[in-house]
Every structure is written in C-alpha cells, then in structure tokens.
Write a structure and sequence with these properties.
Keywords: Oxidoreductase. InterPro entries: FAD-bd (IPR002938), FAD/NAD-bd_sf (IPR036188), PheA/TfdB_FAD_monoxygenase (IPR050631). It is an enzyme of class 1 (oxidoreductase). The protein has 426 residues and is α+β, with helices and mostly antiparallel strands. It contains 11 helices and 22 strands. It folds into 2 domains: 224 residues, FAD/NAD(P)-binding domain (3-Layer(bba) Sandwich), CATH 3.50.50.60; 179 residues, D-Amino Acid Oxidase, Chain A, domain 2 (2-Layer Sandwich), CATH 3.30.9. 31% of the residues lie in helices and 26% in strands. Strand 20 and strand 21 form a beta hairpin. Helix 1 runs parallel beside helix 6, helix 1 runs parallel beside helix 8 and helix 8 runs antiparallel to helix 9. The relative contact order is 0.16. Bound molecules: P-hydroxybenzoic acid. P-hydroxybenzoic acid binds next to strand 16.
Amino acid sequence: MPRSAVDPAEVGPAEVGGAAVDPAAVGAAEVDTVTEVPVAVVGAGPAGLMLAHLLGRAGVDAVAVDLRSRAEIESTHRAGILEADAARDLVETGVSDRILREGHEHEGTELRFGGRAHRIDFRALVGASVWLYPQTEVFTDLADARARDGGTVHFGVSDPEVLDADTDRPRVRFTAADGTRHELRARYVVGADGSRGMCRGLVPEELRVRHGTEYPFAWFGVMAQAPASAPELVYAHSEHGFALISRRTETVQRMYFQCDPDEDTAAWPDERIWATLQARVAGGDGFRLVEGPILERTVLRFRSFVQEPMRWGSLLLAGDAAHTVPPTGARGLNLALHDVKVLAGVLLRALGREGEPALADYQPLALRRIWRAQHFSSWMTRLLHTAPGASPFELRRQLGELDSVVGTRAGRAYLAEQYTGWPSSR
Ligand code: PHB
C-alpha cells in the first residue's frame, strides 16, 4: 500500500540532511559525494526511520541507508500488533495519525485450548489495549514522514560499509541505487539493519557475547481472502500444534500455524492449509474459520537472540540488529521502537553538552525491556506450541499451565500486562 508522493531516494544528501562537502578536498576522490551528518543509520526499516524521525524533530540530522528498495520493504509481511504506547508515539511525535483511522484497537485476545475459547480482557485486567496495525503500515507512515520532513533516506543501496566505527569519526560508504558512490561522515553510526544485517558483526569477535535459543518449529504464514472469523486475535493450542488467527483488512486475514522449519510451501494446496487450520481451532463450541482463497504462503523461521554489547565505539545497535524474539506475542517491532526511543534520548544528550559518556546509559536502559520481552516471547511460544514428539505428560502439563493462566485473575493479568507492554519508565 505505498502512499508516498515523494520518493525519498530521489532526495540527495547535497540537498537536505547533512552538509555536503567536496570529496576531492577531503581526500575521498573515489566517492561522488561526502556528507557530514551527526548520525548515519544503517537500515531504514521502522527502527532506523523512527530513530531518524525522533532525532530530526530535535533538530539533529540523520541519514539512513537500506539495501532494500522501499517497495521491497513495503511488501514484506511482518507482525501486526502495536502496543498502545507505540501507537501513541507515532501520533504524538508527528509521524502520522493514520493508525487512529485505519488501525483497530483491540481490548482483549482469545486463547483457545482444550476445544474452548478463553478471553483475556486487557482493558478490564490492566486498563490497556493494543492496536492491530501491520508493520508495513508503520513503515509506510515513517517513510512518508521522512519524505515530508526533508529527511534523507537512500533505499536500494549496495555495498554498504561502515568504516572507523571504533573512532570518533565513523563513516558509512555505499553505492546509491543510481550507481553513484557516497560517503557519510558521522559522529555516530546506528546499526538498525535487522537480524541478517552486517552491523552486529562489526563488534569484534572477542567482545561479542551472543545469547540465544532455537525452537524445533517454525510458522507457516498465510494471507487468506476471506472475512474475519473472530473479532479479536485467536491464539490456539491443540494437540496438533499451535495456530494464530490474526487479520489485515475486512477482506484479508492473516493466519499462521506451527510447522516444521524445513516445510515446503509447495506441498500446501489451499485445502490442506484450511484442513490444518480448522483442526487446530476446532472445539466443542463449533468454532470454524471462514475459508477463502490463499493469496500468499511463507515459512517463517524464528529464534530468540540477544547480542551484547549494544555499543562498540561510535556504533550503536538497535532493534533486530541486536536482538530477535519469536513472533508469538508480537514483541519484535514494539521492542525495536522502544530501543530507538531510548537511543534517541541518549544520542541527543551525547551530541549535546554531556558528550560521549551519555552513551553508557543506552544498553542498561534498553536491555531491561529486551530481557522481559525475551522471557515473554519465549514463554508464550512454549506455552502454545507442541514440541515434535512431545509426551502425553508434556501435553497435559501444558494444558495445566494454560488453565492456570486463564483460570486465575493473576494469570490473566500477567498475560495482559506482558502482551500490552510496559511503560518505558518501568
Ligand atoms: C500478525 O498479525 O501478523 C501477528 C499478530 C500477533 C502475533 C504475531 C503476528 O503474536
């Protein structure tokens, strides 16, 4: 759903965002432009663009680059749930208020197990809600806001390189989509280039600490052309495995079911997908999904991962570049947006009177929420998925755990509080 009137890739660094310098005069004859900019951001997904937006609001230029084209990012489906705080930040920081018109506020969710539905009422339990607003829409809003505000974003670059990250004059070099070569001379470089990006690997091996765990299953994600089957999201546990019923629009629904990480989408005609999904949500209440043509099918692998340190010299990592969570509970985007909120504050202090010592606050402030989200995502994943070869004991233990979650106010409130997020001050 691209809505941009201006292609940000057409807005060059010489015109906006940083000060253009004559390459020959600064000993960089091999590039076409050299731009001095306080912050260079590698990665122009939601984390990178939100950071550039927050800095821009405070009068600090940030130039972002991304290997992917804008169209490519806009057509990559990701999760769809935003915490109310993140939704409010989009509106209140002036990105866009489209979420209020086109998003859907959800005041609860449904857990299905043992063939029955159990509603978790976020509003009644913890006075909170979440917004169903796909990540691609968040990205579109941010890319439009950057274009509107004159921020420079280079989509579709190649050969990006970060140089001198261990000094106080780090540089980012890249080839723009039109084949011209550019250098950004920054005070800080932010790596917001996701879990497969290059930035996390710039931290020297002897300093890198990697924490993580793998799961013996993946998600089979589909887009189905059909009306909604339920008013809220449905997270289903069954002896056949997990399923999640989410939505995109009135006529397009997003659904997932647990599968083998090596599953081949070609082996899944529409009938097989529907039979699998129906079996996983079936129950004594007669609940059934409304079926329709499957528009897209993808296998999504996932894991839990955190890399420390999140800062090395003048390089700071944010979002998936530093950590990833399984998709159960939709924490990933929310966590990335929290990282950059903290990081924007810290960078503004570091670029201002306080200087570099301010950066020391970033990792501890970000990590606290990261580990809470790691715990919650991993807990919710294990609570709802069926490990291959799980024993009858394990299945019954899981049902006991689910029953303790929905059967006590404390259990329901715990889930509601974690799912809707935590205020950044906590
Ligand atoms: C989605 O709508 O894509 C979605 C929703 C909730 C999740 C994960 C994904 O936990």
